Amino acid sequence: MPRGGKRSGAGRPKGTGKYSESTKAIRVPESMVDRILEFAHSGGFKLPLYGGKVAAGCPAPTDDYIEGMLDLSEHLIQDPASTFFVRVTGYSMINAGIHPEDILIVDRSIEARHGKIVIAAVDGELTVKRLYKNKGQVRLMPENDDFEPIEIGPEETLHLWGVVTNVIHTV
Predict the structure, then answer these.
(1) Across residues 99-108, what is the average pLDDT?
(2) Which of 24, 72, 137, 145 is the most interior residue, by most CB within 10 Å?
(3) What's this model's pTM, rounded to 2 decimal places?
(4) Catalytic residue among 92, 109, 116, 133
């Protein structure tokens, strides 16, 4: 008798399993199985978006209806394949609204241009700073007067990892 392959009458009839429909097996790294299952059972990143607005000045009447479901990744991540998250330590970017323990959303596909806040590796050490480029001169500028700019000379190795697109800040 041959082994393997499809056998007539074998298996569960279609649509009678846990999901009441056909299923498909997928291959994922074992280290990600728990996170993927948690994501699938949570319904993804969609959360309720209330139709009313919150007044930042005088209190205003509220509207208690849900406008729809909001997927934060649609608003915060432009290119998922080139996006990563990193947690901040230190106070050098405090005046840019970046505080210790904040989570930065960083996109590697965005060009690191003058004025952008970037994640940079200087001689192998990571930092978050505002990129300054002018007439061949490159500096990484802090957003806190207590810190000095990092001058990038010919002896330093600079690798720009990506551009900060959003800050997740806990109040």
Answers:
(1) 94
(2) 72
(3) 0.67
(4) 92
